[in-house]
Amino acid sequence: MKQEPLLSITNLHTRFHTYEGVVTAVDGVNIDVYQGETLGVVGESGCGKSVTALSILRLLPSPPAEIQGTILFDNMNLLDLNLDEIRQIRGNSISMIFQEPMTSLNPVLTIGEQISEAIRLHQRETRQEAWRKAVEMLQMVQIPSPEIRAKEYPHKLSGGMRQRAMIAMAISCHPRLLLADEPTTALDVTIQAQIIELMIKLKEEMGASIVLITHNLGLIAEMAQRVIVMYTGKVVEEGKVEELFENPLHPYTQGLLGSIPWIGQKLKTGRRQLQEIPGVVPSLLEIPEGCRFHPRCSRVMGICRKEEPPLVQPENGRLVQCWLWT
Amino acid sequence: MTETVQTQAWKTQRSGDSQLKRNWAKLRRNKAALFGGILILIYLITALLAPVIFPGNPSAPNLSRSLERPSVEHPLGTDELGRSILGRVVYGSRVSLLIAIGVVFVGLLVGVPLGLISGYYGGKVDFCIQRITDTLLAFTGFLLALALVAVLGVGLKNTIISVGISMVPIYIRLVRGCTLSVREQTYVEAAKALGTRDRIILLRHILPNVMAPITIQTSLGMGTAILFAAGLGFLGIGVQPPTPEWGTMLSSGRAYLFHAPHVATFPGIAIFLAVLGFNLAGDGLRDVLDPRFRL
Amino acid sequence: MLQYVLKRLLSTIPVLLGISLLLFFMLRMLPGDPAQVLAGQMASPEDIKIIRQQLGLDRPIFVQYGLFLSRLAKFDLGRSARTQNPVIKEIWARLPNTVLLAVTAITLACLFGIPAGIIAAVRPYTWIDYLFTSMALFGISMPVFWLGLMLIVIFSLVLHWLPAGGIGSWKHVILPSFTLAAFVVAFITRMTRASMIEALSQDYTTTARSKGLKEKVVIVKHALKNALIPIITVVGLQFGLLLGGAVLTETVFAWPGIGRLIVDSILARDYPVIQGTILIFGLLYILVNLFVDITYAFIDPRIRYD
């Protein structure tokens, strides 16, 4: 009983042409997002998760970026559309929340204006009507005194409120797909919890799908149903959240989960040091031969050094790229 | 941990390349900056090898040959006193180079320490130095040089001093701004916590980080110095004749604009090329060293 | 907002005082008797005596400074050593001409420079960017007086389209203001380009695009509004530099403004006029800065409310 995915990315390659060489930030990625689900995308900085999201909406400046592949949405390949057509989708059926609410909001425009301009554009409302709806949106994201707040400028708001405003901006035209790029990373922990709750609530109310990009595994556990793990531009593991957390297959995923400190760890395991994945993420200009993770892998084998493993499906709904499971 | 696509640049650098090597490569790629470098080189060589390029006394009058059009014997023509313009332009490069170096020297000597002190210590010292800088800046560049010449008098030495002093507030502002931001860095706090003496902190931590904008400003400043000195010369209150200075030459050429425009044209071209060279090089340096340190 | 304006007004006082102090001491640093210097070559002993009394040279220096300030407050800048006219009158006769020139020049510069900078920023590294950037670079590297002379050669002596100098009709204004503008337009173009590139690379620009806004809207409503702040700073600064450049341009075009006045005075050692014109220049500069700062407050809401 497989439904059609809402968004289907096939064989996506996103390359940047730099003086030092061609950097392949996204190297042959396949992702499906289904109706009403929250898909988590996890990985360390530089693994290509943000670039993937930006590629969907074609927000990367096109030289130096070069995007190849297929991104199907509503039976259209988003990469084939011209700029006018993709603009109709942006902010409308697909919208994006960014990481840094302070720099992502325009400092010289009021919050209300920034929200209503999308409404005016996509829903063709009048100024007053759009403003009213913008205030409604602020209400929905639980900002107190929304009528007053709408007239204020971003620097007057706290970090949490700014992020809420960003969310309001993103959902203002009732998108079917929301791309959330590290939505809580720049916030205090207590505010993070509030924003997570808000997003869960909104998703239920609006029935949208969310692609949740983060390096915070706890966030994934709270919000996502399925999760994808990326490393140097490739998908290395995929599966349902509970299954993956319970039983990670790829050594990288194991390392990620193992490196999360938990209370009582020292007592229970006797370890005095935190677990870590040795080494650093390689530069995208100097990608290791064979399996990209092999220099850091605790279970490396001979073949890992020579050949890149294929992506296989050990169980239903699980994908992994590792010689251990081939 | 925040990152945008742009700031992931470090992930796309090859490990092992030193910063200097990378900067040099970047600079070499910038064709405009290279062109500027060539212009500067030509300028320097002309100034240093002036007697070789043009043997003889460029200031010796020869009235029988006055105001001649450019010819094989005098490729740039002669001026109202029959002197070869080529010779005067070539020797003029020495004068302007001397002025430019002197001016920048004054600016650095006075401006950098004051800027460091002002930015680092803050408080009353900063306030005083800043008010003085404000006042100097209120005279906007050339005017300040003008006013100082009014007090000090004309001539080469006074030109250097006047234009140099007008450059000082720019350095003070620049260095102070940079010092302020470096001062807030954690490694400075750490050095202080270790009990390092202020003088050492200034020299070893702050000054190296201020070098980038200073270098850029110096390159641009050389160009500005040449322009200001030529301006003073043009007004008759800079370098005095018969010393060949490009601005002074332009001033005397003005009278013969209709009959002999070449007298005024060539010194002006010389000024233009020299300043262009420094501006191009300065821009190139800015692109490489730090695009943030825009002036 | 009002608080901000008041604060800015107050901060001009130290600078004004600074300028007055500088002038005060400048006079006393010149060789010779200050009264003699002020009176000039042609003055009689009685005149010198009167001036000595005015200056209060026999009294303590604080009193002298106080007298100086009080005279300034009454706009008494003394008499020209050359013409014996009140300095204020000499300046007032010429000031409007310089202001006319400066305002025309800065307007021209903005009209050309800001759009050029925006276009260059939106299409970076294309031929049009290189064209505008090179033109800007040339403009900054050219000595303003040389450009003026070259323009005279071309437009006046060769083509006979425009007069070579003096004042009178709108035709007389063109060459000098274009010459002045050439230097300034270069700075404005460069600053606009740099500022726009910076604004366009900011996160909020990506956010604006992600909402599906048309590129024109992104450039003007989102980026330009932010970019204007440094652009206005530069325009204000350039106005100040223009006043300095006016000195040279007025000399080249025989334009009867205060720029020429100051040069003539320096050559003639007419100290009262030198003092007066420097003061006026300083005042103008401060006014322009004040105006720029207030304009900031209108554009950048962060300044308005803090």
Question: What can you see in these coordinates?
Answer:
The complex is a heterotrimer of chains A (326), B (295) and C (306). With 326 residues, chain A is α/β, with parallel strands linked by helices. Chain A folds into two domains: 7-93 and 175-325, Rossmann fold, CATH 3.40.50; 103-174, no CATH class. Chain A contains 13 helices and eleven strands. Chain A has helices at 49-56, 83-89, 101-104, 111-123, 127-140, 146-150, 159-171, 189-206, 217-223, 241-246, 251-258, 265-269, 302-306, and strands at residues 7-18, 21-33, 38-42, 65-73, 76-77, 94-97, 177-181, 209-214, 226-231, 234-240, 319-320. In chain A, the strands form two sheets. A seven-stranded mixed beta sheet of chain A has the order 6-7-8-3-9-10-11, with helices on both faces. Chain A has a four-stranded antiparallel beta sheet with strand order 2-1-4-5, covered by helices on one side. In chain A, a hairpin with a 2-residue loop joins strand 4 and strand 5 (76-77). In chain A, helix 4 (111-123) crosses helix 5 (127-140) and helix 5 (127-140) crosses helix 7. Chain A is globular. The mean pLDDT of chain A is 89. Mean pLDDT of chain B is 83; it is low at 1-11. Chain B is mainly alpha-helical and 295 residues long. Chain B is 71% helix and 0% strand. Chain B has helices spanning 19-29, 31-48, 50-53, 85-121, 123-138, 142-152, 156-183, 186-193, 198-235, 246-254, 262-289. By secondary structure, chain C is mostly helical. In chain C, 81% of the residues lie in helices and 0% in strands. Chain C is built from 13 helices and no strands. Chain C has helices at 2-29, 34-39, 45-55, 61-73, 87-122, 127-141, 144-158, 170-200, 203-210, 215-253, 258-268, 271-299, 301-305. In chain C, helix 5 (87-122) packs across helix 8. Chain C is flat.
What portion of the residues of chain B fall into strands of 2 or more residues?
Answer: under 5%
Largest sheet of chain B: none
Question: What is the ordering of alpha helices and beta strands of chain B?
Answer: HHHHHHHHHHH
By helix and strand content of chain B, what is the structural category? mainly alpha
- Provide the low-confidence segments of chain B as ranges: 1-11
Number of strands of chain B: 0
Order of helices and strands of chain C: HHHHHHHHHHHHH
Share in β-strands of chain C: under 5%
Into which percent range does the helicity of residues of chain C fall?
over 70%
Largest interface: B-C, 45 and 45 residues
How far is it from the N-terminal to the C-terminal residue of chain C, by CA? 8 Å
* CA-based gyration radius of chain B: 23 Å
Number of helices of chain C: 13
Q: Please compute the radius of gyration of chain C using only Cα atoms.
A: 23 Å
Q: Which geometry of chain B do the CA atoms define? A: elongated
For the sheet with most strands of chain C, the description reads: none
Low-confidence stretches of chain C: none
Secondary structure category of chain C: mainly alpha
> Kindly state the mean pLDDT of chain C as a whole number?
84
